[in-house]
């Protein structure tokens, strides 16, 4: 088991190296140039050239890649060209909002979607099933920002139940923190709910045909324990897989949600950095995302051993 | 136990075939008058019924297909659907609410939203289908290579894993930032972001097929690799790839909208549902119709594609229902 | 590993949430939440000349002089000044009791270092440096500046609102190379920058500096006493104007620097909000043509475009339906200012496509492609770009519309290469009216060829007239010189002004003391 973990972690290194090379090359060949943006509207071409030299942007590719890789391996993600702050600081400031948003979205999505999927499978073919599946398909057909605007308008502006935008750190109180995250989590979670509900239903359908379910019913267990304990446990593996895959989707959707609800998170940081050509920030954040994605997948693979004792590494 | 091959019992015969032939009719004995055949009392089942049964059995694929066809026709017939030039500016008539003259109102530069939405269907459909097609072809190639050529598998899969660990939206935005906004660049950017998933899928199929006895047999008998791929591997990848392609199409259309929202999408000189919404987003509280109409059409189209995908999946292989 | 051990382990991991520091606010502390026009990404107002950096800079740093609402420089950090009879030596005495945010007193050597750094980046500063003999601190509170030639506009240069402003910093910070960002944000202005609460792209926080000694006079723009009536100012950066509008209506922010004009009727209807013009000096929209390459190296073709365009179209695209927000601008200087001129501007923006087509043919346009760069992520450039594309197509140009972002525009416009090799023929931008009052600090109107702004217009009559303005001794001579500049600039088409437009600002009714001006002045603003 430990050997498996060790091997998996080692295997992440080439993946991360590929990501690093890819991201670095991408930005190296990009035509936009931070020197010009920094120099500002009133700058002369001389100023721009001088700033470019100061930033070291005119040295060859391999030199810059080598220096950068060396830095990363020492835990130094570099310094932002625009703000002069260390990239780790900039990321650190924005981790809490994004992680909070993801967590609340995840919990919300799982709590809503899994029961929906189970009920749909249980009543397969009925009106409830069709309704749930219909709503699920609609869930990932509507663009995220439209949902966000509608929710913000109805619940924040018109009804005034929740704030329109912003983020409150959890240190300032649980309810303030949560109230800022409810609308964004629902917005972001709709797609996720749709996905999880569908997979839950499909897997449950399969499981409910199995002999052991019939046995449990024959034993006299009522529907609740049958569904949720016996059947769901066995359906857990694909569901957990989908949750893992969905995290990559969440990060993408978070960019839009963070913009609509003005949450100071990593998604916005990355997009702003890309549009401004703030190379160190882009590289640092993409590396971080990849690392997190790889870790999440590892955690999911490990969780299989908990969920399904037949799986052993 | 006789060695003769007895005919199969009836229960094992596949349904749908006509009942076993009765003994051939002997000619009637001379002198016996044979009445003309009576008309059938029970009429033959009409062809119309077969279609209705199909619809009833596969509502998802039919509904999706019909919706998609409507949108497709709208895109093709755009110039004849009461539209004007979607790029014609009229700043003096900006942000007018929907009226008899401007069915969906005008946007911030006075362009007719209805025309832009109708023409926008072209771009969204083009982006969706192109990405689905290109990503499938490229993913197929990569997956095949990775699955069949063992020593390349490790390297290729590392690269694919690497690309997959970058969130697709960010990858697309970064690629768009390399070049200027245009429909082609949007297509290429989204395609690149979608290839890894197809490659993984194809590789999975290839790997599982590689172990099958009939493939091993084909290799042993000396069948060349291209023939093996063509005859054995490809047909088995078609079903999951087709289903995956429809999901990619739906996802590409939404990604195009999100790219436009971020500001890295198709430029407004070519209307697309994404950029109509992006341009109107600041005004959603006062002039919501600029976002509403493209949103409705986009949702409808993506829904249709998803339904077609679901229907295909159910029809082609119910076992795939588990894997989405 | 069994299930229990695994679960125990994962509970121990927890979430290591980095502390986003928030001080315990004192009871009744007044916080003003402000939505700025853009993100505050860096914070060196000498190094970065973006408007948002300058605006933030005025909170943290103070100046020797500051212009008032009539654009006349008034004393700020200076107690008295003397100029020698031959006008070559200036002596400034600092006010007593000025302190930096870290408690140190403000000394003359800090002023000398700050002025030196400022002069390296500011266009007028460079001119002064060119005629400078000596700049020294004769004692702790006195600065002496000796020039080789008289420079009547010195006080104006020290007090102007255009970036980079002559802000005073401690010597150790001011000694930073002018092309490197400063890392310490210590000033002597009325507010302190709370560095550890700064989240670039999301929030910037300022706290009132209790040891600040405002002047006695009432405040008027950068002049007079800068009295802070709130304890904290939080800049909340909103990437989405719709969100900002909703937040303002909901009371989650107090003051929005630049609401888009389409949202203004909605904000006006809200009984909790006030909406008014932000800056009477407004903005000048522009697009610039590349004078180095065909087809715009031909002055007649440039004039054809300038004549055919309709300023009304451009202005409506930018500000919407409110006619009180824009004016035609047949020239290059800000309306409502003493030097405004319409000389030679008859041919600007006639809105006549047919005439334009005719002029284009007469000028001998051979169908060369026009590479038109349009940044999609800035509302103003995007709107102008759409109008231009339409205009050029109707005139018969062969248009290559390049939709890109502001960052790429910034790079590409610096390239003098031919358009087909990474250069350009046309790009869009705009200038604050405060920057277009006179040729000082207005690089966009210069026509000195290689040394000019992007587009590199080379029109000697413009430069001669500008030199005349610099040497002008009295207002009448200045006006005459500017008229000549205007006429020559129209004739040679230094750039094409697309019109003069105003913007709004909006604030909640419980906030008072907000004035109109080129900078959102936070002193004198209170919150009920």
UniProtKB/TrEMBL annotation, chain A:
**Superkingdom of this protein's organism:** Bacteria
Q: According to its record, how does it sit in the membrane? A: Multi-pass membrane protein
Name the CDD domains on file: TM_PBP2
Transmembrane ranges, per UniProt, are: 9-30, 99-119, 131-154, 174-195, 235-261, 281-307
Gene Ontology CC terms: plasma membrane
What the entry lists under Gene3D superfamilies is as follows: MetI-like (1.10.3720.10)
Keywords from the UniProt entry: Cell membrane, Membrane, Transmembrane, Transmembrane helix, Transport
- The parts of the chain that form a coiled coil are none
GO MF annotation list: dipeptide transmembrane transporter activity
Location in the cell reads: Cell membrane
Q: Where is the ABC transmembrane type-1 domain?
A: 95-304
PROSITE patterns the UniProt entry points to = ABC_TM1
Claim: Disulfide bond is one of the keywords in the record: no
Q: In this record, what's one Pfam family? A: BPD_transp_1
Among PANTHER family, the record links this protein to: DIPEPTIDE TRANSPORT SYSTEM PERMEASE PROTEIN DPPB-RELATED
The Swiss-Prot or TrEMBL record describes its family as follows: Belongs to the binding-protein-dependent transport system permease family.
Name-wise, this protein is: ABC transporter permease
Q: Which organism is it from?
A: Methylobacterium tardum
């Amino acid at each position: 088991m430990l050997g498996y973990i060790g091997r998996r972690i080692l295997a992440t290194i080439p993946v991360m190296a590929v990501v690093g090379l890819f991201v670095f090359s991408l930005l190296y060949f990009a035509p936009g140039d931070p020197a010009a943006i920094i120099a500002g509207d009133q700058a002369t071409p001389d100023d721009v050239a001088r700033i470019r030299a100061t930033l070291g942007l005119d040295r060859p590719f391999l030199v810059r890649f080598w220096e950068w890789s060396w830095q990363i391996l020492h835990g130094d993600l570099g310094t932002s060209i625009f703000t002069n702050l260390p990239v780790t600081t900039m990321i650190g400031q924005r981790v809490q909002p994004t992680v909070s948003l993801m967590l609340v979205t995840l919990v919300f999505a799982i709590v809503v979607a899994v029961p929906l999927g189970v009920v749909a499978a249980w009543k397969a073919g009925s009106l409830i099933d069709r309704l749930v599946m219909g709503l699920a398909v609609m869930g990932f057909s509507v663009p995220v920002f439209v949902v966000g605007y509608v929710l913000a308008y109805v619940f924040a502006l018109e009804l005034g139940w929740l704030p329109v935008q912003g983020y409150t750190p959890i240190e300032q109180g649980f309810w303030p923190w949560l109230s800022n995250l409810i609308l964004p989590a629902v917005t972001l979670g709709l797609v996720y709910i749709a996905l999880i509900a569908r997979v839950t239903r499909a897997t449950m359908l399969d499981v409910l045909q199995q002999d052991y379910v019939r046995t449990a019913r024959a034993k006299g267990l009522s529907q609740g324990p049958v569904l949720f304990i016996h059947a769901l446990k066995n359906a857990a593996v694909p569901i957990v897989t989908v949750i893992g895959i969905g995290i990559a989707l969440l990060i993408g959707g978070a960019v839009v949600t963070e913009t609509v609800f003005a949450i100071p998170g990593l998604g916005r940081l990355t997009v702003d950095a890309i549009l401004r050509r703030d190379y160190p920030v882009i590289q640092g954040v993409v590396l971080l995302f990849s690392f997190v994605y790889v870790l999440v997948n590892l955690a999911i693979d490990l969780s299989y051993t908990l969920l399904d004792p037949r799986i052993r590494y | 136990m006789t060695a003769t091959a007895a005919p199969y019992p009836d229960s094992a015969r596949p349904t749908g075939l006509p009942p076993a032939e009765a003994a051939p009719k002997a000619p009637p004995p001379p002198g016996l008058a044979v009445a003309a055949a009576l008309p059938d009392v029970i009429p033959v089942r009409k062809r119309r019924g077969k279609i209705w049964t199909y619809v009833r059995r596969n509502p998802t694929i039919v509904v999706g297909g019909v919706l998609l066809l409507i949108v497709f026709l709208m895109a093709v017939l755009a110039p004849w659907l009461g539209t004007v030039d979607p790029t014609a500016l009229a700043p003096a008539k900006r942000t007018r609410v929907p009226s008899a003259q401007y069915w969906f109102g005008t946007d911030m530069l006075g362009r007719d939203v209805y025309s832009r939405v109708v023409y926008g269907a072209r771009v969204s459909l083009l982006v969706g289908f192109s990405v689905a097609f290109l990503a499938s072809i490229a993913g197929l190639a990569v997956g095949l290579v990775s699955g069949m050529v063992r020593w390349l598998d490790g390297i290729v899969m590392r690269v694919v894993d690497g690309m997959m660990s970058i969130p697709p939206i960010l990858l697309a935005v970064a690629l768009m930032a390399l070049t200027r906004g245009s429909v082609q660049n949007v297509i290429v950017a989204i395609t690149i972001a979608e290839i890894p998933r197809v490659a993984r899928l194809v590789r999975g199929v290839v790997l599982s097929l590689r172990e099958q006895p009939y493939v091993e047999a084909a290799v042993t008998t000396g069948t060349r690799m291209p023939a093996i791929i063509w005859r054995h591997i490809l047909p088995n990848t078609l079903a999951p790839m087709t289903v995956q392609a429809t999901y990619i199409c739906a996802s590409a259309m939404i990604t195009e909208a999100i790219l436009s929202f971020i500001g890295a999408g198709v430029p407004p000189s070519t209307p697309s549902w994404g950029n109509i919404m992006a341009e109107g987003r600041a005004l959603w509280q006062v002039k919501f119709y600029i976002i509403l109409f493209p949103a409705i059409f986009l949702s409808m189209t993506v829904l249709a594609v998803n339904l077609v995908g679901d229907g295909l999946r159910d029809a082609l292989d119910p076992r795939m229902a588990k894997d989405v | 590993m069994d299930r229990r051990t695994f679960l125990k382990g994962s509970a121990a991991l927890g979430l290591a949430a980095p502390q986003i520091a928030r001080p315990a606010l004192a009871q009744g502390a007044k916080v003003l939440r402000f939505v700025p026009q853009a993100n505050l990404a860096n914070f060196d107002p000498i190094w970065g000349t973006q408007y948002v950096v300058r605006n933030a800079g005025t909170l943290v740093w103070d100046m020797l002089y500051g212009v008032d609402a009539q654009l006349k420089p008034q004393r700020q950090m200076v107690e008295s000044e003397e100029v020698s009879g031959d006008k070559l030596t200036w002596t400034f005495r600092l006010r007593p009791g000025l302190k930096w945010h870290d408690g140190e007193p403000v000394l003359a050597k800090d002023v000398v270092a700050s002025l030196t750094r400022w002069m390296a980046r500011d266009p007028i500063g460079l001119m002064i440096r060119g005629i400078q003999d000596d700049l020294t601190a004769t004692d702790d509170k006195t600065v002496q500046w000796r020039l080789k030639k008289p420079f009547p506009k010195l006080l104006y240069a020290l007090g102007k609102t255009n970036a980079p402003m002559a802000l005073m910093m401690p010597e150790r910070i001011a000694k930073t190379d002018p092309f490197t960002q400063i890392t310490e944000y210590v000033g002597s202005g009325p507010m302190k920058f709370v560095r550890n609460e700064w989240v670039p792209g999301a929030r910037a926080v300022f706290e009132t500096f209790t040891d600040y000694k405002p002047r006695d006079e009432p405040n008027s723009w950068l002049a007079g006493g800068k009295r802070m009536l709130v304890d904290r100012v939080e800049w909340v950066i909103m990437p989405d104007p719709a969100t900002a509008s909703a937040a303002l209506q909901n009371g989650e922010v107090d003051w929005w620097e630049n609401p888009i004009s389409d949202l203004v009727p909605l904000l006006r209807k809200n009984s909790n909000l006030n909406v008014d013009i932000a800056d009477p000096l407004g903005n000048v929209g522009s697009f610039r043509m590349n004078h180095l390459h065909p087809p715009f190296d031909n002055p007649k073709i440039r004039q054809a475009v300038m004549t055919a365009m309709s300023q009304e179209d451009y202005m409506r695209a930018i500000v919407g339906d409110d006619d009180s927000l824009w004016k035609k601008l047949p020239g290059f200087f800000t309306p409502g200012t003493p030097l405004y001129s319409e000389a030679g501007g008859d041919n600007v923006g006639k809105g006549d496509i047919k005439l334009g087509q005719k002029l284009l043919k007469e000028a001998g346009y051979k169908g060369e492609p026009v590479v038109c760069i349009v940044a999609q992520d800035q509302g103003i450039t995007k709107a102008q770009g759409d109008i231009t594309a339409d205009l050029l197509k109707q005139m018969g140009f062969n248009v290559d519309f390049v939709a890109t972002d502001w960052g790429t525009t910034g790079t590409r416009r610096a390239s003098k290469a031919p358009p087909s090799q990474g250069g350009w023929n046309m790009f869009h931008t705009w200038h604050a009216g405060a920057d277009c009052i006179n040729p000082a600090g207005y690089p966009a109107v210069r026509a000195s060829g290689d040394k000019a702004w992007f587009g590199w217009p080379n029109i000697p009559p413009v430069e001669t007239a500008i030199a005349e303005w610099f040497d002008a001794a009295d207002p009448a001579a200045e006006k005459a010189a500017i008229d000549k500049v205007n006429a020559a600039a129209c004739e040679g088409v230094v750039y094409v002004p697309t019109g003069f437009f105003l913007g709004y600002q909006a604030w909640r009714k419980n906030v008072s003391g907000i004035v109109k001006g080129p900078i959102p002045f936070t002193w004198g603003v209170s919150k009920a």
